[in-house]
Design a protein that fits this description.
By secondary structure, the protein is mainly alpha-helical. Helices cover 78% and strands 0% of the residues. Helix 9 (171-194) runs parallel beside helix 18, helix 16 packs antiparallel against helix 17 (354-369) and helix 18 (376-386) runs antiparallel to helix 20. It is a multi-pass membrane protein.
Length: 438
C-alpha cells in the first residue's frame, strides 16, 4: 500500500505540472500535504514536516544559490564572459574552435545558470560562426554541452547544491568527482558529437537577437575574468592546503575549515569581484547592487521550488517510507546508483526541468541512501546525470535551442536531445566507473 501511495503521489505531481500547468511550487506543496495524509500522518505532524523540510532545505542552500546568481550576473554584465570567449577563440584558432567554445562554456558555466548562460553566449556563438564561416550547430553545440553539464553536475548550481545538502555529501569531493566525469562528457557530447551536426539547420550567419558587444577597451583582463568565475573553486581547494603544511594545529584547522565553507568562498568571491569587475572598471556601486537585486528576482522561483521539494522529501522521511524502499532495494539486483539515475531520468522525461527532476528524485531517494551504503558524493552525480537525460518538448531549454538556432522540432531532437542524452549516459558510465575504482 505504501508503494502505491508513493506512485500515486509522483504521478499526481507529474500531472499537475505537465498536464494541468500548475506552478511547480504549488504542485509540490499540494502533493506533500496529500502524501502526509495518505501515509496516515496526523494533520499537525504533516504541517510540521512541511515546514521543517522547506526550512532545512532552503537554509542550507539559499545563501549559496543567491550569491551564485549575483556573481553570474556580474560576470555577464561586466564583459568577463565575452573576454573569455575572445581569448579562447584566439588561443585555439579555427581548427579547434569547437574546443574553444566548450572551454568557454565550461568556465563561464561555473557561476552562470544555464538559461542565463545561453542567452549571454548565443550572440558569441553566432559571431564565431560568422567569422569562421562555419555551421552554426557545429560551433554552438560544444558550448551548450558545457553549460548543461556544469548546470546539472556541479555546485554551486541549484540542483547539485540541493542534492549535496540533502545527502550530506562532501562538496569538494563531489566537485572533484564531477570534474572527472564532466570533462569526457563535454568532449564526447560537445566537439566530437558536433561533427555530425554540420548539415543540420541554417548557417546562422545573421542573428537579429544579438545584443551589442562591449568595446574591447571596456572588457576586463583575461586573468581577472577567468579568476572571477573560478575563484570559489580555487578558494575551497586552497583552504585544504594548510592542513597539509601545518598538520592538525587547532587554530589553523578551524580557520581553514571556515574558508572551505562554500558560503564563505562564494561571499569572498563576490566581494572581490564586485571591486575587480565593477568598482575598478568605474561602475557605480548603486548600479552593481541593482544588478544583484535583478539576479535574485531571476532565481526567486527556483528557490521556492527547491524549498517545496524539500517539504515533500521530509514527508517521505517522516512517514518511514525509507524502510519500505530500503527493503525493496536490498532484494533488488539493480545497483543503487543505476537505480538513482534511472529514477531521475524518468522524472526528467516526465517533468522537463532538470532542476525539478533532480530535487524530486532527492526526495524519493533520500531514505534509501542511508540504508544501501552508497557513496553519497557519487549519488549526487548519478542523480545529476539522470536529470539531463532526454530533454524534449516539455523542457524550456529544448525550445530555446530550437528557436534561437532556427531548427525544426525534428532537427532539435536530432541535435539537442541526443546531446543531452549522451551527456547523461556518459555521466552514468563515469559514476559507475568511479564507484568501482573507489
Amino acid at each position: 500500500m505504501t508503494i502505491l501511495v508513493l506512485i500515486f503521489c509522483i504521478l499526481l505531481l507529474i500531472a499537475l505540472i505537465t498536464w494541468a500547468k500548475v506552478n511547480a511550487f504549488l504542485a509540490f506543496l499540494i502533493v506533500a500535504l496529500l502524501a502526509g495524509c495518505f501515509f496516515g500522518m496526523p494533520f499537525t505532524t504533516v504541517i510540521a514536516s512541511v515546514n521543517k523540510g522547506l526550512g532545512d532545505t532552503l537554509g542550507s542552500v539559499a545563501i549559496i544559490i543567491v550569491l551564485g546568481a549575483m556573481l553570474g550576473k556580474l560576470v555577464a554584465e561586466s564583459g568577463a564572459a565575452q573576454r573569455i570567449a575572445h581569448f579562447m577563440h584566439g588561443l585555439f584558432g579555427a581548427k579547434y574552435v569547437t574546443y574553444a567554445m566548450a572551454i568557454t562554456g565550461f568556465i563561464v558555466g561555473i557561476p552562470l545558470y544555464y538559461n542565463v548562460g545561453f542567452i549571454l553566449l548565443v550572440p558569441i556563438i553566432f559571431s564565431v560562426a560568422s567569422s569562421y564561416r562555419l555551421p552554426l550547430l557545429y560551433v554552438g553545440m560544444p558550448m551548450l554541452t558545457a553549460l548543461s553539464v556544469m548546470h546539472g553536475f556541479l555546485p554551486p548550481h541549484p540542483s547539485p547544491m540541493t542534492l549535496i545538502s540533502v545527502f550530506h555529501a562532501d562538496v569538494v569531493k563531489t566537485f572533484g568527482y564531477g570534474l572527472i566525469i564532466a570533462i569526457p562528457a563535454i568532449i564526447i557530447a560537445g566537439p566530437v558529437f558536433s561533427t555530425t551536426l554540420k548539415k543540420i539547420g541554417p548557417n546562422g550567419l545573421q542573428f537579429a537577437g544579438s545584443s551589442a558587444a562591449l568595446p574591447a577597451n571596456e572588457l576586463p583582463g583575461i586573468i581577472n575574468s577567468i579568476l572571477s568565475s573560478l575563484l570559489p573553486v580555487v578558494l575551497i581547494c586552497l583552504a585544504h592546503l594548510p592542513s597539509v603544511f601545518f598538520g592538525q594545529v587547532p587554530f589553523i584547522k578551524n580557520l581553514a575549515s571556515w574558508f572551505a565553507e562554500p558560503v564563505i568562498a562564494m561571499l569572498l568571491t563576490l566581494i572581490i569581484s564586485t571591486y575587480t569587475l565593477g568598482l575598478h572598471k568605474g561602475r557605480p556601486l548603486a548600479k552593481i547592487m541593482d544588478s544583484y537585486v535583478c539576479a535574485v528576482k531571476d532565481i526567486a522561483m527556483v528557490l521556492i521550488i527547491i524549498g517545496s521539494a524539500g517539504a515533500l522529501k521530509q514527508i517521505f522521511v517522516d512517514s518511514h517510507l525509507g524502510d519500505v524502499l530500503a527493503g525493496m532495494l536490498v532484494n533488488s539486483t539493480m545497483h543503487p546508483l543505476l537505480f538513482a539515475w534511472l529514477a531521475t531520468a524518468c522524472l526528467r522525461l516526465c517533468l522537463g526541468s532538470a532542476t525539478v527532476a533532480g530535487v524530486t528524485a532527492a526526495g524519493v531517494l533520500f531514505p534509501i541512501a542511508h540504508h544501501s551504503g552508497v557513496n553519497t558524493n557519487l549519488l549526487v552525480l548519478a542523480i545529476g546525470a539522470g536529470s539531463l537525460f532526454g530533454s524534449h518538448v516539455n523542457d524550456t531549454a529544448f525550445w530555446l535551442c530550437k528557436e534561437y538556432f532556427g531548427l525544426s522540432v525534428k532537427e532539435t531532437l536530432r541535435s539537442w536531445t541526443v546531446m543531452e542524452s549522451l551527456v547523461s549516459v556518459i555521466g552514468l558510465a563515469g559514476v559507475l566507473s568511479l564507484d568501482y575504482l573507489l
